[in-house]
Fold:
Amino acid sequence: MKKEERLPAGAHFIMGNIALAEGAIAAGCNFVSGYPITPASEIVNRLSVLLPGAGGGFLQTEDEISAICAAIGASWAGCKAMTATSGPGFSLMQENIGFAVATETPLVIVDVQRLGPSTGVPSVGVAGDVIQAARGSHGDYQIIALSPESPQEMFDMTIRAFNLAETYRVPVFILADAFIGHMREQVVIPAQDNVSLLNRKIPAPGTDPMSRQDFLDPAVAPMPVFGRGLKAHVTSSCHDKNGMRNLSDPASMHAFIMKPIEKILTQRDRIVETESDYRSGDTLLVSYGTVSRSAKAALAKGRAAGFKIGLLRLKTIWPFASKEIEAAAQKVKRMVVLENNTGQLFPYIKADAAAYCRVDFMGPRILGQIPDPDDVLKYIQETT
Amino acid sequence: MDAIEHPLRKYTRPHVTRTTTCPGCGNGIVAQAILRAIDELGLEMDDFVFVSGIGCSAWIPSPLFAADTLHTTHGRPVAFATGVKLGRPDMNVMVVSGDGDLTAIGGNHLIHAARKNIDLTVVLVNNGIYGMTGGQTAPTTPLGLTTITSPYGTMEHPLDISATIVAAGAPFVARWTTAHPRQLTRSIKKGLQKKGFAMIEAISQCPVQFGRVSKLGKATDFLQHYKKNSISFSKASGLSREELAGRIVIGEFVDIEKPELSSQWMDLKHQMGQEAQCHNKQ
Ligand SMILES: Cc1ncc(C[n+]2csc(CCOP(=O)(O)OP(=O)(O)O)c2C)c(N)n1
Ligand code: SF4
Structure:
């Protein structure tokens, strides 16, 4: 049988979704389950070709509910697991995203966002699932979500997503969109030796689960993966640090909710990444994902034309970059928030910045159309 | 003198000293049939992953069984178990859950796992009702029975789960009642040995919820009822629909060989010069 090879190290002109699939292989991903949906399909299509030759497996499931469940099951079997979908499929996954959070399961979940609600427009990228990613499942929790702005970042951030998932034993989201997923651009693939990979810690074999503390550790407990004689008890119901169900003790309930949240928030300085380029007194363009490309173009053009403008890009959306936004707000005159939706992160940004500077939202004139850089500059001029 | 220990106690977690099951519930009989099958086959609990969903029956292995146990969301255990099996094809992966869990909310997963023929052993505990949530209609509730959510008698026809899973292509399907613990154990053993998707349906008494609405009485009355009304698969095949009304057809409905999914994956990886298993080296 002919083994389909991954792309060799070097520069390639490829689609964002293909870059993401190549990134998954480079990250050591060895289990992918998915159900076809535009604009995410190329990811699973490509991985179904590559995985067997990379020691992995691909499962096309009967729906997105089984896709995420199978990925969680495979993660507990010791695999580096991933699933990729788009809006409607992402909605179907929500109940079991909560399961992954509650059981501290490392996993990468890709949402190549499309215009919604409902079946919406598959080929148009609107970043409409930004809040759903963090709040779509019931209950209180925190997640890690990365926001790529280019095919290159589809590759790089996928490797980072797997490393974060393994390090913190959490589901990690890649919130791409149809534009980045289908855009073709140069992607530089590094030699595999230059890709640093991290793996989850696993407890020593033969130890009694009641003497181990496999769960609810903000410092990240070793994960008792299956098949190693660890007799792990894994339940998404409220459990104690041994994993044993406890539905009556208020302290256990508190810990069940708070410890996984603390696990992410205490490490936020290691997780949160932003890109910034601003000076004191600037008008700051705050953006993420596809629309930040427009912000960057406006920055270059505007500065050349004598505008006092700067840029802050959120490379991670969750946990939220409150600290970085607050610090910027203290230096700049005004923030203009550019989002490829009706303003999903705007209230969060405003909450952190409004005490220090003026904060405005500039949505797309027509949803699904990335604003023209000239429009951005015009908006700044007209509203100053 | 030391108290005599139950011969199957060695397969349960030492710190678990009670279960959530009501007195007289069939879950205890099913739990014993599973553990006895493992015992008689001489299998190690460390080679098992038990996966269950939500409902009274889903609590059979969790947290009782001293093995890797994955207690999942309502209806999804088969989907989770599929990922576990593909990740660790060398493990015995057993799903234990109720009829509501596996056929109502989870019906699609069950059908497709049978179709794909992935090597899972599914013990489906069919008590004809939603026990855990207080006695609502299940897809298996007999026509006309008055339940909490069918106060005028259910107008829906019950699902023949075993027939459905035979039709979906499973290579091993059997049905027994809790009045047939030996046969149940034997079929679970066969299911475990079958390289492929095996479902064993266990008709089981819920004296608390089903008993309340059916007026069938105590657990022992259920067992008498099962004994009296069961008919073997071979005998049933000659009877008309009318003659079969109210009867429980028991036996092994199918026992064949066909290519299995996780081993086909291992073969494919092997052909590509890759290691058979996908779990982390670390
Ligand atoms: C998504 C979801 N919907 C509903 C429930 C509530 N629920 C818990 S158990 C159950 C039915 C269980 O019935 P069955 O599988 O027959 O198990 P039994 O309790 O009878 O053994 C339901 C509807 C749930 N936990 N999750
Ligand atoms: S409610 Fe019924 S099924 Fe549930 S434990 Fe009690 S007797 Fe068993």
